[in-house]
Amino acid sequence: RAPPRRVARPRAIVTRGAAVDGASSSQQQQQPRSEQHRQQRSPGLFGRRALGAGAALVASTLLESTASVPPARAFTRPPPGYRPFNDTIDGYKLFRPEDWIEVKGSGNDVFFRNPSSVEENMFVSISSPSSTKFASPRDLGTPDEAARKILAQYLNEFMSSRLGVRRESSVVSAREREGTDVDGEPMLFYDVELRITSYAAKNQYGLTEADRPQSLEWDRTLSSTLGVANNRLYELRFQTSADADEAEWRARYGVIKDSFKPFDVDQSNLSFPLF
């Protein structure tokens, strides 16, 4: 019997190049992860330029937007005993005595009264936006003409249906004053001071005048400051008794009057226009 023949098995041939490639791949696998992470995170030249250009764009946008915003109005601290009142809807501000009480439902825009004196109060009245458009207090005429119109309005407000009532009135003073607005710019005001005295009969049903003797009912001094903004006339009215301490109430009204500043209202943020 013939011996079996041996079959030669093929041997795997490994080249040097393949060995080198295998070595490099193993080195890459053995490379520290921290270095690979650093290489992935380090931006190239183009990335740095993009970041710089973006920062410059943001900075220029902020500068342009800041330049278009009007400067903030400086806050003026009220003197002791007063509190700021700011109506941003109707557009006016003032200082009011901190111990005065606000009265609701008076029919005026705002009304404050002195709890220590029943005849001393102040309020702000604003003309209707649908009525006459005002550009300046001078639209009412001269200060004296404006005072006469205001006096007629006051007498109409104080009109009484009682019998035996008599009113005496006079214009104490009327002048034009150049004040400042909320931005410190010149603003025109009219300052008017009036006096109204009321006499009434205790016996309204007397047949003759001798049966209806009149006596003093009240005697009041009324001061008004007029200004214009938003094409509307703003009136600050201060009322006190004629028997009150003149130096005291004039000092109080002086603080309120000088702080009274109508200003234009920005309607861009409103859903409907006010004027």
Q: What would your notes on this structure say?
A:
It is built from five helices and ten strands; from the N terminus they run αααβββββαββββαβ. A hairpin with a 2-residue loop joins β8 and β9. Strands 3-4-5-9-8-7-6 form a seven-stranded antiparallel β-sheet, with helices on both faces. It has a three-stranded antiparallel β-sheet with strand order 1-2-10. The chain is α+β, with helices and mostly antiparallel strands and 275 residues long. The radius of gyration is 42 Å and the shape is globular.
Notable characteristics:
alpha+beta; 3-stranded antiparallel sheet
Element layout with pairings:
Layout: H1 16-30, H2 33-41, H3 45-68, E1 82-87, E2 92-97, E3 101-102, E4 110-113, E5 121-126, H4 143-157, E6 165-180, E7 186-201, E8 214-229, E9 232-241, H5 246-259, E10 261-262
Antiparallel strand pairs: 1-2, 2-10, 3-4, 4-5, 5-9, 6-7, 7-8, 8-9
The overall strand count is 10
Give the SSE order as H and E letters: HHHEEEEEHEEEEHE
Shape: globular
Mean pLDDT: 79
- SSE class: alpha+beta
- Give the % helix: 25-40%
Strand content: 25-35%
> How much is the radius of gyration in Å?
42 Å
Span between termini: 127 Å
Largest sheet: 7 strands, antiparallel
**Poorly predicted runs of 5 or more residues:** 12-31, 41-46, 61-72, 269-275
Strand line-up in the sheet with most strands: 3-4-5-9-8-7-6
Output the number of helix runs: 5
